[in-house]
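Journal club prep, shared notes

We agreed each person brings one worked example of a sequence with its structure written out as tokens. Mine is Lipoprotein. I'm keeping it raw so we can talk through how to read the token line rather than staring at a rendered picture. Sequence first:
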Amino acid sequence: MKKNLLTMLAAIFICCLAVTAMSACSSDNDNKTETPQEQTVKMFYVVEVSDDVLKVANVEVNYVDQTGAKQKEVMTSKEWTKALDTKTLPLTEGLWARITPKSAVASGNYQLKVTTAAGYQAKLTNGKTVYDGYGSDPDAAPTAAQTAEEVAAWCAKSPTVGFTVSKEGYAKQTKVDFGGNDGEDADNGLARAICRWFLSMLGDNPDDC
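Then the structure, token by token:
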């Protein structure tokens, strides 16, 4: 699961870098005079669940879009992603998977896990690029559940990811209220994994994370 998430996030970052590189080449060829760059921000969200989750529960993804509005989408497969573009800072990102047990859950041996991640890449007018992300730990072991009561107890603990990005492009964790997300906030396990992997790919020191 961790490999799949990092692959999806890598694709987003690589696309952003490719667009930047092409734009820079065009600017160098057409005009040698340096001008302020246009500010752009790429927001992204990822939710992934184990196979058993969709067997015993319905998953509704709640997120904050590029306008600051709260949106909802029903999760129909074990992977859900969303990428959004804006030119405005500051902004808030928020993500919560509302997981509701189905009406009739038979006894069984269920392995339940949800991984959530949110991140961004901000290209500022001064030419600086800042990126960061937060999320739950992709290495966490799934929770075993055998009864409907155990499934319901696990569903109630779905974590929330929330942070604000300042006009300077830097993130700080915050609480985003989707109405009902009373579980714990996601830790920063996935963000550290993203950071170390991304810096390694760029040839930088992953210990800087």
